[in-house]
Structure formats: structure tokens, C-alpha cells
């Protein structure tokens, strides 16, 4: 009986090991490991910014994991991407560049970010006297909607509304939770 059990375990062991391939992981890297074109683009795009981290994102990872969070899609073999995290006194910005230094995606979180007038007007029209308590600014040149704001609004009845709105005031997505 013991011998049969050992044979069965040894027979199926390779299938278990093959099925448990490791997922690729993003890794924090030093500035010297970042492609020159990425460094050049960051310094041109954000000359006064302080860099918090550089992160290499393997192509296998963004093909598997990112889905709707990152709107751009790749076709065929793609290079690694580079995430650059910037920090400021009142804001944080995550940027994603390709190896050639092209900005693919940007996520800006501001504590005190002034929204465009059209965005404020759209929120006021839709949610009345609700209070905006959080907003993020997204830029993705490769998307159908290249720039938008994600705004959280608390209404008088304490419902929270999450609203996606373009700079021109067009609300294209929203949901509400208690």
C-alpha cells in the first residue's frame, strides 16, 4: 500500500509543479537600471519633480494582471514598462513609460487639486450640494478617453458617489455606495 502511494505521488508530482509557475513580479530598480530615454523623458515632462521609486514591470505581468486598470493594450511581443513614482508635498503621480521614453499612462493623486470648471459644473449639476472629498487625474494618451478625473462626492444623505468625468464635463461612468 505504501509503495503504491509513493508511486502515485511521484507520478503526479511533475504535473503539480508545472501547474504552479510563478507569476512575474514588478521590482523596484535603481536609477542606473532605468533606460536613458525614460530618464530623459521624466526630466523633460516633470523637471521639478522628486522621484520616489523606479519600478520595472515585466511584459508578462501587465499582460496578465492589469485589465481595466490600465486601459492600453499591447499586441504581440512587448517590452518591459517602467513605472516612475513621483512625490510632492500635496500630490503623488504614477507614470508608466515604455523603453523608448513614451508616456503611456499617468495617475495623479492630489490633496488639493483644482478641478476644471466644466468638471465642477457637471458634478454640481448631477449631485447638487454634494461635497467633493477626493479626486484623481488620469492621463492615458493611448486610450479612447485620453484624460479624465475620478471624483468622489459625498451627498447630503451620506451616500458616496464615484464619478468618472472628462475635462469638458462629460460624465461617462459613475456608481454609488453607502
Give a verbal description of the structure.
With 178 residues, this protein is an alpha+beta fold. The chain folds into 2 domains: 22-108, Roll (Nuclear Transport Factor 2, Chain: A), CATH 3.10.450.360; 117-177. Helices cover 26% and strands 35% of the residues. It is built from 4 helices and 9 strands; from the N terminus they run H-E-H-E-H-E-E-E-H-E-E-E-E. A hairpin with a 7-residue loop joins strand 6 (131-139) and strand 7. Residues 64-76 have low confidence and may be disordered.
Number of domains: 2
Number of helices: 4
Report the top-level CATH class of the largest domain.
Alpha Beta
Average per-residue pLDDT, rounded, comes to: 80
Rg estimate, integer Å: 22 Å
List the strand order in the largest sheet.
Answer: 1-2-3-4-5-6-7-8-9
Going by CATH, the architecture of the largest domain would be Roll
Shape: elongated
What helical percentage do the residues reach?
Answer: 25-40%
Structural class: alpha+beta
Order of helices and strands: HEHEHEEEHEEEE
Q: What structural keywords apply?
A:
178 residues, alpha+beta, Nuclear Transport Factor 2, Chain: A, 26% helix, 35% strand, elongated
Summarize, please.
The protein is an alpha+beta fold.
Please describe the topology of this protein.
Blueprint: H1 2-19, E1 27-29, H2 36-45, E2 50-57, H3 59-65, E3 81-87, E4 91-97, E5 103-110, H4 117-127, E6 131-139, E7 147-154, E8 160-165, E9 171-177
Antiparallel strand pairs: 1-2, 2-3, 3-4, 4-5, 5-6, 6-7, 7-8, 8-9
